[in-house]
TrEMBL record:
Classification via CDD domains: CAP_ED
Pfam annotation, one family: HTH_Crp_2
Xref: SMART domains: cNMP (SM00100)
Coiled coil: none
Molecular function per GO: DNA binding; DNA-binding transcription factor activity
Protein's organism: Fastidiosipila sanguinis
UniProt-listed InterPro entries: cNMP-bd_dom (IPR000595), cNMP-bd_dom_sf (IPR018490), Env_Response_Regulators (IPR050397), HTH_CRP (IPR012318), RmlC-like_jellyroll (IPR014710), WH_DNA-bd_sf (IPR036390)
Matching PANTHER family: CRP FAMILY TRANSCRIPTIONAL REGULATORY PROTEIN, CYCLIC AMP-BINDING REGULATORY PROTEIN
Keywords: DNA-binding, Transcription, Transcription regulation
The keyword Plastid belongs to this UniProt entry's keyword annotation: no
Domain Cyclic nucleotide-binding: 13-134
Identification of the protein by name: Cyclic nucleotide-binding domain-containing protein
Keyword Transcription regulation belongs to the record: yes
GO cellular component: cytosol
Amino acid sequence: MDKISRALSKTVLFSDLNKDQLVDYSSRMNKRTLWKGEILVNEGDRVDGLYVVSDGTLAIQKYSIDGEYVTLNLLEPGDVLGHEFFYGSRNRYTYSVEAVTNVEVIYLPKDVVIRFVEADDQIKKNFVKSISDSLNEQYTRIDILSQRNLRLKITNYLLHLHVKSEESTDYLYGDIQHRSTEATPYVELPVSKEVTAKLLAMPRPSFSRELVRMEKEGLIRVNGKIVWLLDLQALVMMGEDEYEED
């Protein structure tokens, strides 16, 4: 199986296809490399195809008139971009997408994707599931950003990364405690602290200061992009207390 086929097999959209189908579909796709800082699409560009991230990280960003921007979400290997516009009334991107690391993406024209979807019931189901998963990810992000202070935003984001690292589809605090082992759990920030701060809609200095405070309290330990969750139970209880207050 070639690299494109392996990348497709990691996506929700193509995960249930057999080897021959993956090879057949991958033969109709093109691969593109982007360097860190390069723009994949600009807000307002016409949606003419689907992108699959095969390596690296992309940031979905919204720019203001004065050039400032907020990071709406991150796309990592296996994530799909563009398909959410295929059957909607809008056929232009409502955001920009930038490579925050060196990135490889796989591109498939829109008309080819639609033929696949309409001809294959499994891909049709996966297409709907992929859009549903994207919406759930956005709702999780909204939930994180709606927390009342920096500490809770950071805590919920770290717990979200922990759940994702456990390959769970349920963002439940009880599940986190149940799956924890004797080994100290940790998460890896997918991007730099600067980009992570943008993702959490907070100034970088504020983000760094709060991490230092959490370290001093024995909740976490930070080493580069690695964040050790030293007191997972306390972190989980913070999240539970927030939901109880709501």
